[in-house]
Design a protein that fits this description.
By secondary structure, the protein is mostly helical. The protein has 21 helices and 2 strands. α4 packs across α15 and α6 runs antiparallel to α13. 57% of the residues are buried.
Length: 455
């Protein structure tokens, strides 16, 4: 096992080295420049058009409401990556990794906006009358490349297997810490809960996520904020660690084994990318089903998604871990997944661990529900509807396999598979950037959209 871990770790480090950093950060920055850094210039307007319109009936065509589509997308992004990926980034890359998570969030807003806009522009209606879209469609129709579309679809279809395993593993670790529950039992419970929803399609997924995502987010964040306020005097020092170790890696101390600069960047960028999914091409599949009157309006929900996921939830998790001091305890690196439950347990007693485990279960179940939907759509695109319905069971079985698997091996395999879908998607949205710019200009200069809204 150690030899396998070393080989996989070496390969992951190679994949997530300078090339991936240039593609994600450079690509997102390039898109942001071409779009005139719209995420900063129109930030108040974007907030008003997203958070301010949650309960407003949308105009236009689509299958689900914009809020349902964004909660479905958030259900995919807000999950183990926020609660478990953050401590993993800290333990394997040091506190400075959080800084790189923020960097990838800000530049990722350009990528998330672009891919969402393209997803809506090139969406189609399937045989069941539902709107479907995503990278496969804008690669096939926008770039006229069936090969790239098929490569992406197959890569994502396979990448979601270790993704599901990582999500399941995080709940199993937390449940074992909080309740001494067998990972196998946790896996079976998750498989049953997920299976009951995914067979119902995007409409049922939308109904479940629009209720589950806000509830689970508030429950977890409330507990986390209480912990941070109880350690409020340590918050400045925590931010100091994040900024001071972003370019000068932290040395070995306590339970932390130290990290080289490359590891700081790799863990921050990889966990940030996996957390907000900017550039991965997954979110457009949920956003493409939304009722909207213009692709750019739905693109704003993509920006909103990154803000909530990385800048809010990931940062709060990082402060919980850093202010509690748990990352310095002996043996912490052996199981980063257990750190949030331990922090909540120290603050609230046995009930604290239960809160994290329940929140994590809700996060993970909703995440797995949506990523299975994504995987089903790839299988449908490549092999047809009949095959896609059977492929669901591969993901359901992966839940149990992941629950009893080794965390670090799963994270490394996930990172390798992530690269296989990020590379073709980022290439596609960069090549199609002129179309995104044209649609954005149309929206902000039209009397039907932006000019009408601000009046």
């Amino acid at each position: 096992m150690e030899g396998l871990l070393n080989v996989v770790g070496w390969l992951t480090g190679l994949v997530w080295g300078p090339p991936m950093l240039i593609l994600l950060v450079g690509g997102g920055l390039w898109l942001s420049i071409e779009l005139g850094f719209f995420q900063f210039r129109y930030f108040p307007y974007i907030v008003k058009q997203t958070f301010g319109k949650i309960f407003t009936k949308p105009e236009g065509e689509g299958t689900v409401t914009p809020f349902q589509s964004v909660t479905a997308a958030l259900a995919s992004t807000v999950g183990a990556s926020n609660i478990i990926g953050v401590p993993a980034a800290i333990m394997f890359g040091g506190p400075g990794a959080i800084f790189w998570m923020w960097v990838i969030a800000f530049v990722g807003m350009g990528s998330k906006f672009a891919e969402t806009v393209l997803g809506v522009k090139y969406r189609e209606k399937n045989a069941e009358g539902e709107f479907v879209g995503g990278p496969m469609y804008y690669m096939k129709k926008g770039l006229n490349s069936k090969f790239l579309a098929a490569f992406f679809a197959l890569g994502l279809m396979l990448e979601l297997i270790p993704s599901v395993m990582v999500q399941a593993n995080s709940v199993a670790a937390s449940a074992s810490t909080a309740f001494n529950l067998s990972p196998l039992v946790s896996g079976v419970i998750m498989m049953v809960l997920v299976g009951m929803v995914v067979v119902g399609g995007i409409k049922r997924i939308g109904r479940v996520t629009e209720k589950l995502v806000p509830f689970m987010s508030i429950l977890y964040l409330l507990g986390a904020v209480i912990i941070i306020f109880s350690n409020i005097t340590k918050v400045p020092a925590a931010f100091g660690l994040i900024f001071s170790h972003a370019f000068q890696p932290a040395a070995a101390v306590g339970g932390f084994g130290g990290a080289a600069f490359a590891a700081v960047v790799r863990w921050g960028v990889a966990r940030g990318a996996y957390s907000n999914e900017a550039g991965m091409g997954t979110a457009p599949m949920a956003h493409s089903a939304a009722i909207t009157d213009h692709p750019v309006r739905q693109g704003f929900w993509g920006v909103f998604e990154v803000i909530i996921d990385t800048l809010v939830i990931c940062t709060i998790t990082a402060l919980v871990i850093l202010t509690s001091g748990l990352w310095l305890e002996e043996g912490a690196a052996a199981d980063p997944s257990a750190l949030p439950a331990m922090a909540f347990g120290e603050m609230f007693g046995p009930m604290g661990g239960a809160v994290v485990t329940f929140s994590l279960l809700a996060f993970v179940v909703s995440t797995i529900i949506v990523v299975i939907f994504y995987g089903e759509k790839q299988a449908e695109y490549l092999f047809g509807t009949a095959f896609s319905k059977k492929w669901i069971y591969v993901y359901l079985i992966s839940i149990i396999v992941g629950a009893v698997g080794a965390a670090e091996v799963l994270w490394h395999f996930l990172d390798i598979m992530l690269a296989a879908i990020i590379i073709p998607n980022m290439i596609a949205i960069i090549l199609l950037r002129k179309e995104v710019v044209a649609l954005t200009k149309e929206f902000f200069t039209s009397e039907k959209y932006y000019l009408k809204d601000i009046r």
